[in-house]
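[Q] Does anyone have a clean structure-token version of this?
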Amino acid sequence: MNRTFSICALFLLFTAAVNAQVASHARTVQPQQAPKSSSVTALKPTGKPVARVNGSVLTEADLVREEYAIFPYARQHNGIPKDMAPQIREGAMKMLIFEELVYQEAQHRKMTVTPARMQNAEAQFRKQFSSPAEFNAFLQSDFQGSRDLFLEKVRRSLLIEAFLKIEVDSKSGVTPAEVRAYYEKNSARFAHPETYTFQSISIIPPEHASASQIAEGRKRVEKAYAQAQQSKTSRQFGALAEKTSDDDYRVVLGQHKPVPADQLPPQVKKALQSLQPGAITSIIQVDQAFTILHLQEHAPSGKEKFANVQAQLTKELHESKTNQLRSALDQKLRKDAKIEML
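[A] Here you go.
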């Protein structure tokens, strides 16, 4: 339950789901329809009741709108993959009931939406249609031509948004002090091991190679080593790796991501320890394979600086706090509610 509610977002999602099924009022940008498949569950909005919350009936159309919000690619795939459908429907039902409980509580508190806010929301929504005629066709198809019914749906969405701003958004802020405290308390998370970043050229004789095959591998690597010593840059070394190396890294110019020192073979680690970035090792033999490494970076073990992780950590803590507040609000609203699955 971690979705962010923006102006008229719920209503826009509702119409997105319906527009995917009703061509008469489709938007200017048409969703592509994929061929039907037995592995896809088609979404067909209807007025069939699916739940009752404190007496208010929620319909299949409402539920489909939530499914599209969770899995927006359904419009491109003409439905939801069958292996995902049960989980998505369960999540959509939970969100649908949560929204209805929020809306009812907003009404109970006598919250209102100003005329100016309504006018702005309606204006923003109308921009999705290419012409007044297209918008009117939408009203006719989905609201029996009633602008009042349409505006009631907009008002509902805005009330939900306003309520969540009060009960969730305004309480989910994270201070720099809280972020710093988390960083200090969870220092192990931000520790990083000693790593080496390098390129490789590897000559690998066949499995169960004979003495002559191993000797041939030695000749190849010695030739490659003589050429590697002439390379001045990572690009030059990489071009040689692409041309002569036997390992899979040749397709990425011999490039390896940072490797923790404790994951390297002892002879490789020993060879790298004596180098400065930009230098090339001598020929290293690991079992029957021969390799040459170009050291690019050596990063000692340490702890990531707070300044480097502060922004991402602030975002994570904010999202976590938001989810906790939403969950607590959901439990509180459900506590005395009468919810019936139909």
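[Q] Thanks! Anything notable?
[A] DSSP finds twelve helices and eleven strands in the chain.
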